[in-house]
Automatic annotation (TrEMBL):
One Pfam family in the UniProt entry: T2SSF
Primary site of residence: membrane
Transmembrane segments: 76-101, 240-265, 277-297
Protein name (Swiss-Prot/TrEMBL): Type II secretion protein F
Keywords for the protein's UniProt record, in alphabetical order: Cell membrane, Membrane, Transmembrane, Transmembrane helix
Family matches, as InterPro entries: T2SS_GspF_dom
Length: 306
């Protein structure tokens, strides 16, 4: 027992010293772990908030650029200004923004009109099918509009935004559901882009209600007329594709000439932007280009209107 107690004291002392040394050695690691896992979440949260805000700002900017495509003229103007060492491209880019925006809005309006016309023809066909199935006119129109709204949720191809009739669909739905003045609601909805065929649908509805004529037969003829008009527009667009190609080539020729001159080492931007003769040529050439584009577009649009 005396021998065991004599050996136990040094062992206990050695264990106590080792534990103390390990505790002192582990203290920096514990502090580092506390800093990383206890105090650092506030900093990491702030960093995450900063990155989230940056991502939101980038997303909003990207959506704005994609939605307002006319502002793409500004980076192109800045690039030309840097390459040419002049502020004239910046002025031209600022002047081109409203013109390009107007052209893009006109194209968007034409696409909306085409979708609206296709939606009216499809609506007439659906109502005719519901009437042939034995439904009442109001129920047939209500079912057709409900079906069109479901299709608009799945795909917007060929359907006006917000359903078949766009923003005026609620008034037509209310008139069809509660027995209101459906022809008046249809005439009001016909004021939308490409929805002029609804006025013919309202006339068919009024004749069917007042004179007892067959609504299905009138809507069927109206649908055939609308589809024939759409087919003629598509044929005319195909015939005018060559003319629009000429317009595109005419618009791209100046850029192609500048690129060819730069590839040959002629420095066309320096000549056009920093010499009197170049400025005069630039003014005359831009005026002739604008006049040619305007005249060509007017001829092509005249053919489309005819």
């Amino acid at each position: 027992m005396v021998a065991m107690s004599a050996h136990t004291v040094p062992v206990v002392a050695l264990c106590a010293g080792s534990a103390t040394w390990l505790a002192m050695k582990r203290e920096p690691g514990v502090r580092r772990a506390r800093v990383l896992f206890v105090e650092d979440p506030l900093r990491s949260r702030r960093r995450c908030l900063v990155w989230v805000r940056l991502c939101q700002f980038w997303r909003r900017g990207t959506e704005t650029v994609l939605r307002r495509r006319e502002w793409w003229c500004v980076p192109a103007a800045v690039l030309l200004a840097v390459m040419g060492g002049s502020v004239l491209p910046l002025v031209a880019g600022a002047a081109a923004v409203p013109l390009v925006g107007r052209w893009l809005r006109r194209r968007a309006g034409a696409r909306d009109a085409e979708r609206g016309a296709a939606a009216v023809a499809a609506l007439c066909g659906t109502v005719v099918g519901e009437l042939r199935a034995g439904r009442e006119p109001g129920q047939a129109l209500l079912a057709a509009l409900s079906e069109g709204s479901g299709e608009a949720d799945d795909s917007t191809d060929g359907v006006a935004p917000g359903g078949r009739l766009g923003a005026a669909e609620d008034a037509v739905l209310a008139a069809a559901r509660f027995g209101g003045d459906v022809p008046a609601a249809l005439r009001q909805a016909a004021q939308g882009p490409g929805l002029g065929g609804l006025s013919g649908m309202a006339a068919c509805w009024r004749v069917a209600v007042d004179g007892g004529a067959g609504l299905a037969a009138g809507l069927e003829r109206l649908e055939a007329t609308l589809r024939d008009e759409r087919r003629r527009r598509e044929e005319l667009r195909a015939q005018l594709a060559g003319a629009w190609s000429t317009v595109v080539v005419l618009a791209l020729l100046p850029g192609a000439g500048l690129g060819l001159g730069a590839s040959l080492g002629a420095e066309p931007l320096r000549v056009l932007l920093h010499t009197p003769a170049g400025l005069a040529c630039l003014t005359v050439g831009a005026s002739l280009e604008a006049a040619g584009l305007y005249w060509t577009c007017r001829i092509v649009r005249g053919g489309e209107a005819t």
